[in-house]
């Protein structure tokens, strides 16, 4: 069965009440990982106070089912599907969830793939979005990034500037 990948973003309607961003990342990752075992979906999600940016990979019907569920989720609004394509291999083996905060390394990633020192998918190319998600997948846990999925499977590196 052919693999597909979608990339989309939406507005974040979540407000933290008594929890930490690290806990929110952990909870989202756990939900993704649990669904992944049943559906075969993999992907990456990066978010800040304003946006969710996500890539999802797997069989078309599983992606469609998950997308319908997300469209009804009260934590997000204004979903914009920016890419839907058939892929030969996955960019993300398992799930990666990261908080798009601010630090020198993170701000450099935002500027490399976008136009501002923050996550703002409204002003990014589709390839820039995918490459930003790949770059986050290679960050260590000190950047509020967590992973679940196939252990030991190398992720595809984002392309280097000028490549």
From TrEMBL:
Native organism taxonomy: Bacteria, Pseudomonadati, Pseudomonadota, Alphaproteobacteria, Hyphomicrobiales
InterPro entries: Acylphosphatase-like_dom_sf, BLUF_domain
Pfam families: BLUF
Span of domain BLUF: 3-98
Domain of life: Bacteria
Protein's name according to its UniProt entry: BLUF domain-containing protein
PROSITE patterns xref list: BLUF (PS50925)
Source organism of this protein record: Methylobacterium iners
């Amino acid at each position: 069965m052919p693999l597909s990948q979608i990339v989309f973003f939406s507005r974040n309607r979540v407000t933290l009440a008594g929890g930490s961003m690290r806990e929110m990342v952990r909870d989202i990752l756990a939900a993704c990982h649990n669904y992944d075992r049943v559906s075969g979906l993999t992907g990456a999600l990066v978010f800040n106070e304003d946006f969710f940016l996500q890539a999802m990979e797997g069989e078309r019907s599983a992606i469609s089912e998950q997308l319908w569920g997300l469209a009804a989720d009260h934590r997000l609004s204004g979903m914009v599907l920016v890419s839907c394509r058939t892929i030969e291999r996955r960019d993300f083996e398992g799930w990666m969830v990261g908080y798009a905060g601010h630090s020198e390394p993170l701000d450099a990633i935002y500027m490399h793939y976008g136009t501002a020192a923050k996550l703002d998918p409204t002003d990014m190319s589709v390839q820039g979005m995918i490459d930003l998600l790949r770059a986050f997948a290679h960050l260590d846990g000190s950047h509020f990034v967590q992973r679940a999925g196939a252990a030991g499977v190398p992720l595809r590196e984002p392309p280097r500037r000028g490549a």
